[in-house]
Amino acid sequence: MSTTINQQRRTMMKAVSASGLAAIGAANGAQAAIAEDPWARAKEIATRLSQPLRFREQDFVITDFGAAPCALTKVKAWVSHDDQAMVDTQAPGAKDCYPAIKAAIAACHQAGGGRVVIPAGNWYVAGPIVLLSNVHVHLKKGAHVYFSNDPRDYAKYGDVDCGANGKLVITRWQSNDCLNFASMIYAYGQDNIALTGEDWTSVLNGQGGVPFAGSTDCWWTWKGKNRTINPVSQANTPGDAPGKINQRIANPANPTSLRDVAPHLTEAERQLIQGEGDKWRADEQYLPALSEAGVPLAKRVFGLGHYLRPSMVHLIGCTNVLLQGYHVIHTPFWQHHPVHCRNLVFRNVHAESHGPNSDGFDPEACDMVLVEGCTFDAGDDCIAIKAGKNRDTQYGPSQNIVIQDCIMHSGHGAVTLGSEMAGGIQNVYAQNLVFENTHWATNPLNTAIRLKTNMNRGGYLRNFYVRNVKIPNGVQTSPSFYASLPGSPIASKTVATAAGAVVTFDCDYTPTADTVRLRPPVVDNIQISNVTVGNVKTKQGALASCYQAIVILGPVASDYNGPQPMPAVVPVTNVKISDCDFGTPANREQPWYLYNVKGLQLTRVKVAGKEISTTLSA
């Protein structure tokens, strides 16, 4: 198994090494350009990435390889955290098009490239669509792909045979490396690849809320209990019940001690990583524990018997990538998760899934990314830029990312950085956006511009620029909280970092979830301008745009639990907010909250109709 993994890693590194070395040489010049005119640098990135990919002009139609459309039937399924509805799914006995699509992609790749065409119709696919170099997979108008909702179908075809856990693939789950279920769309170490749709009737359906056969559980059940304090919506997990095993409950398949998989640890190291009790044995805690313990990828085996849901579209170590023009719905987990990719365009995609952790687009440790013309309607963050977690930072930072001309509806954050950002995030440009917040009365956008990190995730955020954002229906007008650690100067249930502010920088994000807290984050050089926020009528009848305009919770030094001397814990610095109208906060008495912030500059900022120009520190 280890030999297979090493070969795949070499393939990936070969695909990205040349561009990565070139980027190092350009970095110093880019920093100078950013300092002079960041938006000129954003235009340069967008212009460069707008050059079209080229493919051989030959079509490989999946029906020529044995694919056949399927009949549909109705089933009662979850369509969000809280709601059920009758939805279409494949009828019993539907033909599995996985072999035909695999054969079409293989033939296209072997011919030197071209286009694999999925025609109009309903298609059932019981396994991953694995993209290969120089292959363009295209969905015609009216093509609707129903991916199997049976986890076993994503543990059949992987390159790594893990016995009872299935045949798995190299993947990342919440920014930690592991062997796990394949994603519905997957690629590893490929170059010049595209996934496109003719229009938004070209649908990729992950069936995340459709019950497993003979069960009331679905992919989303594996999330477990929601831990947000005082949520307005998304308070439930579909099919969850007390005692039902999920990613947040100790899994008996995991060892009772890290000694079994990491005998090299000292007793003090083991106790720090495991923490108190056995919650570290829950799959969502066990994987980060393996990273902290330095356990190699070959021993981080999940898949069958575990509860880590796969992302819908997951690309690792790929170069020259186009994702464009389709509609993705009902995804088991994150909707799109490219990792360590370079030259990536995400254009005109309708990313819609209201299930748990249904982030719309999560580029991780990627370099040169353009997101434009997309619409997001998500069960979690619309866009969340990632960069590794714990000790899995080998791919470096996320950087040189342009987000423009997009619409965001529901979600936790519209444009978010983190929370997994241990490798750092820099040079991000977001402009000309509409955070529509269409579902403001029932499922509001929690916050608009969001940073999430803590003493575990650490990392840095620098050179983040935002301008020209319209938020006509505000954000959530009541506060939602996360719990603080014992002994923290920040009392639990007092700071609205989870929801309620237009701008939220949370450097103490869910600290109770991480047992190892020894990496202070650094946040510097943030510029936000021309943000306009409208008011809506609250349940109490008042007009409000948010709960608070700005919440900046800097790093909390008391959270640190590593060796002494403690590294420097520095405040959030060089944040400039100008020419913004934040509407009328519900909390007029305290329109902002600041902790460990130095020199926040407000210039011509309106709050409740009053213009403010001042510099604040706390």
Automatic annotation (TrEMBL):
Signal peptide: 1-32
InterPro entries: GH28_Enzymes, Glyco_hydro_28, Pectin_lyas_fold, Pectin_lyase_fold/virulence, TAT_signal
Pfam family, one: Glyco_hydro_28
GO molecular function: hydrolase activity
Keywords, sorted A to Z: Glycosidase, Hydrolase, Signal
Superkingdom assignment: Bacteria
PANTHER family reported for this sequence: PECTATE LYASE SUPERFAMILY PROTEIN DOMAIN-CONTAINING PROTEIN (PTHR31339:SF86), PECTIN LYASE-RELATED (PTHR31339)
Family as reported in the entry's similarity comment: Belongs to the glycosyl hydrolase 28 family.
Protein name: Glycoside hydrolase family 28 protein
UniProt organism field: Pseudoduganella chitinolytica
